[in-house]
Amino acid sequence: MSAIPPMQHVSSRAAFGLQQDFQVPAFAERDEHVPEIDPVYRFNPEVTLAVLAGFMRNRRVLIQGAHGTGKSTHIEQIAARLNWPCIRVNLDGQISRLDLVGRDAIVLREGRQVTEFQEGIVPWALQRPVALVFDEYDAGRPDVMFIIQRILEREGSFTLLDQNRVIRPHPYFRLFATSNTVGQGNLNGLYHGVQALNHAQLDRWNIVATLNYLHPQEELEIVLARVPGLDDAEGRQTVEAMIGVANLTRKGFEAGDISTLMSPRTVISWAENSRIFSDVELAFRLSFLNKCEDAEKPIVAEYYQRCFDRDLSESAAQALR
C-alpha cells in the first residue's frame, strides 16, 4: 500500500466559494495524476458540498445529469484544488472485467519470458491516495458492475481470486461516479446504451447529487472568461444570443425534438470560432449545426433565428435542404 503523503487543509469558502466554511483535507504536494486547475471554473454549491463530503468523509458519491453539464469536470476541479490525484475511467462497452481487475501478461525478466499478473485499475487505485471516477456509470456491462459493487463499501476489501490476495483500501482512496440517468435505464429514449442498475448496488452510493446546466448569467461569465475578446457591449449581446440558442437545443433535446444539444463546451467553441472566422453564423455551422441530423437542422435553424432575429444565410439554407 502506498504511503500517506504530507497533508494540509484548505478552506471550503476560500477555495470553492461556499457559504459553509470548513477545513477540507488536501495534499501538500501535487503529482502527475492531479488535474490542472481551471481558474474560471464555476462550482455548483450543492454538488460541491456532495463531492467534498466524499473527500472529507469517504462517502461514495454519484453525480447524475444530462451530458455536457460538466459532471466529471466538477469532480476533477475539486480534486485539483485539493492536490488529490484523480483517475477517470469511462465505462463504455469495451471495458471488461480484465481491464478493471487485471490479467496475466508475458513480460521479460532477466532475458526470459515469464507470465506475470498485471493489476487492473481497481486494485491499483485501491492501494493509493487516489480519487477514482467512473464515467458513464449507467452504461457499464453487468459483469463489470458487479466488480464495482465489491468496492462500494467504504471499508470494503477487494479480493483478487487469481492471486489469493485481499486488498484493503488506502485510507485516502475515494470513489465517485457520473451518470446520465439514476439507474432506471433508457426510459425516455434519450440515452441509448445505458443500463438499468441493480438496486442493491445503487443503494450503496451514500450520496446522489444532480447537476443541471448553468444559469445563463453564469454561463455568460464563463464564456467571456474563455474568450475575453468578446467582453464588450456588442460581444456580450452576441454571447447572450449564443447561450439562448444553446438553451433552446437543451429544451428540444429533453422534449425529443432533436438528438444533439449544445453543451457549455460547444458554446465556448462557437465563441472562439466566431473570433477566428469573424463570422458568427459560419462559426455556428462549423461548431454545431454540421453535427446535427439533416432532418433536425431546420429546427436548429429556427432556434438560431429566434435568438439572433435573422435567418441563416442562403448558403446555409441550401445546406439544410
UniProtKB/TrEMBL annotation:
<dbReference type="InterPro" id="IPR050764">
    <property type="entry name" value="CbbQ/NirQ/NorQ/GpvN"/>
</dbReference>
<dbReference type="InterPro" id="IPR011704">
    <property type="entry name" value="ATPase_dyneun-rel_AAA"/>
</dbReference>
<dbReference type="InterPro" id="IPR027417">
    <property type="entry name" value="P-loop_NTPase"/>
</dbReference>
<protein>
    <submittedName>
        <fullName>AAA family ATPase</fullName>
    </submittedName>
</protein>
<dbReference type="InterPro" id="IPR025865">
    <property type="entry name" value="CobS_N_dom"/>
</dbReference>
<dbReference type="Pfam" id="PF12556">
    <property type="entry name" value="CobS_N"/>
</dbReference>
<feature type="domain" description="AAA+ ATPase">
    <location>
        <begin position="57"/>
        <end position="288"/>
    </location>
</feature>
<dbReference type="GO" id="GO:0005524">
    <property type="term" value="F:ATP binding"/>
</dbReference>
<dbReference type="Pfam" id="PF07728">
    <property type="entry name" value="AAA_5"/>
</dbReference>
<dbReference type="GO" id="GO:0016887">
    <property type="term" value="F:ATP hydrolysis activity"/>
</dbReference>
<dbReference type="InterPro" id="IPR003593">
    <property type="entry name" value="AAA+_ATPase"/>
</dbReference>
